[in-house]
Design goal:
The complex is a heterodimer of chains A (about 375) and B (about 250).
Chain A: E1 5-14, E2 24-32, E3 36-40, H1 47-54, E4 62-67, E5 70-71, H2 77-81, E6 84-88, H3 99-103, H4 105-109, H5 114-127, H6 132-135, H7 145-157, E7 163-167, H8 175-192, E8 195-200, H9 203-209, E9 212-217, E10 221-226, H10 228-233, H11 238-244, H12 248-252, E11 268-270, H13 275-284, E12 289-293, E13 299-304, H14 305-309, E14 320-321, H15 332-342, E15 346-350, E16 356-361, H16 362-375
Helix pairs in contact in A: 5-7
Chain B: H1 3-10, H2 14-41, H3 46-51, H4 54-87, H5 92-107, H6 110-121, H7 125-135, H8 137-149, H9 153-161, H10 166-196, H11 209-217, H12 221-249
Helix pairs in contact in B: 1-10, 2-12, 4-7, 4-8, 4-10, 5-8, 6-7, 8-10, 9-10, 10-12, 11-12
The chains are: A alpha/beta (about 375), B mainly alpha (about 250).
Chain lengths: ~375, ~250
């Protein structure tokens, strides 16, 4: 076993009672140090069972489990679990304990001293973006779903485990909060570099969160295990293709940033605009739309010839407003959405301060997709 | 009391909870006034005065408290551990059988139960304590089982997943979270026991039943009434104390 493998399941099988079909059948799976490995598959494929085999909440019928090169199949399961963070969809905070006490669960089991625990609790609350002064002494019922799962993650990280097991952690949270939590979590992971096994049934979440994705079919059989890019570009078989759904190309847009494309420059005008000159410029250019910037180079409106010719209105009120705010770090999926919404087929991109950089076009997007496809 | 009723009691609004602690004392006070009025304004002859002598009454109250307290204690000591035991995995059939059997015990008239125990154990306070304990075992056992069952499975899963042993999960998570429901059962048992302790006189167990019985035998209305009032007040006092315990033993945060 190579050094960079932290968790290894070797020929693991789980059978329940006398049923002929195993829930997990002869699975061999390696999780590399510091990666997010997403287990994704239809419901009933055994992905959650597989996750729970790793911290032995479910004991395997046969097979071997290695953690950090050590055979942990037969060590005391409670001792094993204290070294592995565990986050579940329902969060499972202890309702009779304060947030601080909840987070302190594993450190307390490991007999840390009180002062160290208190410091760690505050540190973790800060880490997940919750003010310790406000939340330390609250009870779980006083938290929203999103806050509760932040605490759930903090609790799992409390004793600084190398491994984190996450079973649909954001599955029960509303889409907007889920998106935010996912992004925050990815940012955290950049610093923490934990080894994470992440279960979801949502392929989009898998693509977003995973360094590698294992697509599972019945009995936890691996249909394909690879990076999201590779899976999207080259699905192993029909099952994977079906599971990815028809929008595989669209999904790959979530993996690319606006910064990866070349920005297109349309004519720009800054107020005050000379109408005649603007019309002339636009007629001379290849583009049919121009952009009106304010004094700080912030894009304000899309201006086409019709808008420029409509003399009944001041130019500052002509055309259509630019409402979407895109930066180079955003994904091409965001850019595509903005293009579709803008009605001119373009998306204006700005830097973090809102200064105009250029436009994202359908052509540049298509070009990038073709290049990506050819590269593989 | 059905499972639904238990759940209802648990989900009382704060207003209902406050009323819980107000209504009982108010009723007890009104009853006491009524009893006192009867004592003052009815015809108390020497026999009645003898039945209601402070010496008699004090002894009987003390006996009733002893009966109620000891039988309830016995119930808790027996029913809670059994409830925990049958709630562990692998014993669902035993659980059903036990609840059915104890339901049967509760369906028997308490009177009959006391007499059955008398045939085996003879007269005395202890006989009554055992009979009452069997009679009021069910609410505590059932509430222990229900209380443990209603603990959110994901909370237990999280506890196990973080490395609590099974015993730690039971002691630190399941039982604290089941306390409100178990306490509701204990409260029911206490009230049953104090009330039924009035029958203890049948087998020489003493208690306020003696006063009522003497009143009946000697045809002394005021004695019957005052005896009955005192049984009721005692039951209410214990109900009130249990309500207080229920309130203060409930873990914060739930």
């Amino acid at each position: 076993m190579s050094d960079d493998v932290l968790i290894r399941l070797e020929n693991v099988t789980k059978k329940y009672g006398d049923t002929p079909d195993a829930a997990v059948n002869n699975l061999t799976l390696e999780v590399r140090r510091g990666e997010v490995l997403v287990l994704v598959g239809p419901s009933g494929c055994g992905k959650s069972t597989t996750l729970r085999l790793i911290n032995r909440l479910i004991e395997p019928t046969s097979g071997t489990l290695y953690l950090n090169g050590e055979d942990v199949t037969n060590i005391n399961p409670s001792m094993l679990r204290r070294k592995i963070g565990y986050v579940i969809q329902q969060v499972g905070l202890f309702p009779h304990r304060t947030i601080a006490e909840n987070i302190a669960t594993v450190p307390k089991l490991l007999n840390w001293d009180k002062k160290k625990i208190a410091e760690r609790v505050d540190e973790l609350l800060d880490l997940v973006g919750m003010d310790p002064e406000v939340y330390r002494d609250r009870y779980p019922k006083e938290l929203s779903g999103g806050q509760a799962q932040r605490v759930g993650v903090a609790r799992a990280l409390a004793a600084d485990p190398d491994v984190l097991l996450m079973d649909e952690p954001f599955g029960a949270i509303d889409p907007i909060t889920r998106d935010r939590l996912q992004n925050e979590f990815l940012r955290l992971q950049q610093d923490l570099k934990k080894t994470i096994v992440f279960v979801t049934h949502d392929i989009d979440e898998a693509i977003k969160m995973g360094n590698r994705i294992a697509i599972l079919r019945e009995q936890s059989e691996i249909a394909q295990l690879d990076t999201p890019e590779a899976i999207l570009a080259d699905p192993a078989d029909e099952f994977v293709e079906n599971f990815l759904g028809s929008g595989a190309i669209l999904k790959s847009l979530t993996l690319m940033k606006i910064a990866d494309t070349e920005l297109h420059q349309v004519p720009v005008f800054k107020a005050p605009v000379m109408r005649d000159k603007a019309i002339e410029t636009l007629q001379d250019s290849e583009d049919s739309t121009s952009i009106l910037l304010d004094a700080d180079d912030k894009p304000l409106r899309w201006l086409d010839l019709a808008a420029l010719n409509r003399t009944s209105q001041p130019i500052e009120k002509s055309g259509r407003p630019i409402s979407v705010d895109l930066q180079p770090e955003d994904t091409l999926q965001d850019a595509l959405t903005a293009m579709l919404q803008s009605s001119v087929g373009l998306a204006a991109v700005t830097d973090r301060k809102g200064k105009y950089l250029g436009c994202c076009t359908i052509e540049s997007l298509a070009k990038l997709l073709v290049e990506q496809g050819a590269g593989k | 009391m059905s499972t639904a009723a238990i759940t209802l009691r648990r989900q009382k609004t704060p207003l209902a909870e406050r009323l819980d602690l107000i209504v009982t004392p108010v009723f007890a006070g009104l009853l006491a006034l009524l009893g006192f009025a009867v004592w003052l304004y009815s015809d108390i002859d020497a026999t009645t005065a003898d039945i209601l002598s402070s010496e008699n009454i004090t002894r009987q109250i003390w006996q009733t408290i002893q009966l109620g307290f000891l039988s309830s204690l016995l119930v808790v000591v027996i029913a809670v551990p059994i409830g925990i035991l049958v709630s562990r995995r692998g014993l669902p059939r035993l659980k059903t059988a036990l609840v059915d059997f104890l339901g049967l015990a509760q369906a028997l008239p308490a009177y009959g139960l006391i007499v059955i125990f008398f045939t085996f154990m003879g007269t005395g306070l202890t006989t009554v304590v055992y009979a009452l304990a069997l009679f009021s075992l069910l609410p505590v056992l059932r509430n222990t089982i229900v209380g443990l069952e209603q603990v959110d499975k994901s909370v237990i899963d999280a506890g196990r997943g973080m490395g609590y042993t099974k015993l730690q999960v039971l002691l630190q998570i399941e039982l604290p979270l089941a306390v409100p429901v178990i306490m509701a059962g204990i409260r029911t048992a206490i009230v049953i026991n104090i009330g039924m302790a009035a029958l203890a006189f049948l087998v020489g167990g003493g208690g306020l039943g003696e006063t009522i019985n003497s009143g009946l035998k000697l045809n002394r209305g005021p004695a019957i009434f005052i005896g009955a009032v005192m049984v009721a007040i005692l039951a209410m006092v214990f109900d009130f104390l249990s309500a207080l315990a229920q309130k203060y033993l409930k873990p914060k945060g739930i």
